[in-house]
Design a protein that fits this description.
The protein is α+β, with helices and mostly antiparallel strands. The chain has helices at residues 2-12, 18-24, 31-37, 47-58, 96-111, 121-126, 128-146, and strands at 64-69, 73-79, 83-88, 115-120. The chain has two domains: 1-42, no CATH class; 45-158, VSR Endonuclease (Endonuclease, Chain A, 3-Layer(aba) Sandwich), CATH 3.40.960. The chain has a four-stranded mixed β-sheet with strand order 1-2-3-4, sandwiched between helices. The radius of gyration is 17 Å and the shape is globular.
């Protein structure tokens, strides 16, 4: 996991090219690293999101990353077009302005028919199994209501 975070950070900061890393780790013994490098993205905003994406992919989910939703703004992950996953580190969300903005975004997405999970850094880093179980449980509960797009309405400013 740490290697993935370091590799993605290096690629995002242009310290090394992804193709260079792939070439460097193209040997038969490098298959594990090569497989991890296939998950590197240039759009990930934080190391926590790198870890969350790794766990989601390993569990069979296909998350869209850094998705812009009208009236909501950028969300960390969107699964199946209806499940928003936001990874919340305390430092970024601790001010009054950030708190209010987050609540406005949350209300807008909910009133538009989307489900939002707000996941702590501690859960991602120290209890990834609980994180994935939360996502599975949410999908089992809500997915039947979203088949065919019946519940989702246009998301916009309120």
């Amino acid at each position: 996991m740490e290697a993935l975070v370091i590799a993605e950070s290096a690629v995002v900061c242009n310290a090394v090219g992804l193709e260079t890393l792939k070439q460097e780790f193209s040997g038969l013994r490098d298959w594990r690293i090569a497989r991890l490098l296939e998950t590197v993205r240039r759009t990930t905003a934080s190391p926590l999101e790198v870890c969350a994406r790794f766990h989601l992919l390993a569990a069979g989910f296909l998350p869209q990353e850094e998705v812009m939703l009208p009236g909501v703004g950028r969300v960390d992950f969107l699964i199946d077009g209806w499940l928003i996953i936001e990874i919340d580190g305390y430092a970024f969300h601790s001010g009054r302005t950030e708190y209010r903005k987050d609540r406005q975004r949350w209300n807008c997405s909910t009133s538009g028919g989307l489900v939002t999970l707000r996941v702590t850094a501690e859960m991602i880093l120290h209890s990834p199994g609980s994180f994935i179980e939360l996502v599975h449980r949410t999908c089992r509960t809500w997915r039947p209501l979203y088949r065919g797009g019946a519940r989702r309405r246009q998301v916009g400013a309120w």
